[in-house]
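Hey forum,

I'm writing up a methods section and want to include a predicted complex as supplementary material. The small molecule is glutathione. I've pasted the protein sequence and the SMILES. Can someone with a working setup run it? I'll credit the forum in the acknowledgements.
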Amino acid sequence: MSEDQTKPGETVSAAASKTAEHERAPQAFTDRITADGSSGRRVEAGRYRLIASWACPWAHRVILTRSLLGLQEAIPLAIVDPVQEFLDGDYQWVFSEEHGGPGGKDPVLGVHALREVYWAARPDYTGGISVPALVDVASGHLVSNDFEQLTRDLNSEWRQLARPDAPDIYPEALRADIDAVAQEIYQDVNVGVYRAGFAKSQATYDRAVDALFTRLDALEERLSTSRYLVGEQITEADLRLWPTLIRFDPVYHGHFKCNIRRISDYPALWGYTRDLYQTPGFTETVDFEHIKRHYYYTHEMVNPGRIIARGPDPAELLTPHGREKL
Ligand SMILES: N[C@@H](CCC(=O)N[C@@H](CS)C(=O)NCC(=O)O)C(=O)O
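Reply by user p_vandermeer:
Happy to help. Structure tokens for the complex are below, copy them as they are.
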């Protein structure tokens, strides 16, 4: 695999930000929670805790699924501070007084740094420490940090606790199409923005940004005749793309040098971004303050002065999108 490729499951931003190339951390925690308990862990309201960051697009995909399915009460959410703490030579996700509780600890799990959860599960663990992370509260066991499997399991195994009219975001009949478009989006868009932003050479940057905008141009075409990426409903494919789009103009365009075009320069992509933003279940998962503070503060080599770019005005997301007619 070349330096430009990234496999699903690696800790993308950790790898990209901490090494010149894209170092691969194997997805280390992949236990499953199942409806029938056959995996050893049964679906149960209130038993597990989802640790996430409002800033992280991978965590956002799980948060969105939870929100669309109405699983907020069944799976409580713990949000880390947007600014990582420098611990033993590394930036780490931590809880704080503001995001967490007294003593800068998560009030339920009693931990300050997310790495404590990883170490409790595997004391000799030296791989990436990433969000999202789903924890079995009583034992403190880290069940999974695999965003893809988590999303799928919320949609299937957790259905008994979902609201009755919850959408199926990964319907059997559309899976092949969803997987195909998700794979293209993953490589060129989801990871592409990081590749461009953390490039250590002009050639690496050029390749990333070319692939990114070629893909965005193709998605613009696709979305100019259809409201959603696959079929006539919101699917997992949309949940792959949208978290990157919503961060694009405020962060990736400037901070990651993805500035050939803005999303707001693409009529269909921009309408689509607003359409989903205005869809129940989406708006409440977006926190621009966390998104901006995280990116502009954390990547020291990209933005050593920690100056947060001001624009664009988030109110633009509330303007009419006219996509109902599609
Ligand atoms: N483990 C996730 C990857 C998620 C990821 O890369 N999360 C980033 C934040 S956007 C992270 O936590 N990076 C570790 C760090 O920034 O220290 C997966 O299923 O692929």
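Some notes you might quote in the supplement: The domain at 12-161 is CATH 3.40.30.10 (Glutaredoxin). The chain has a mean pLDDT of 92.
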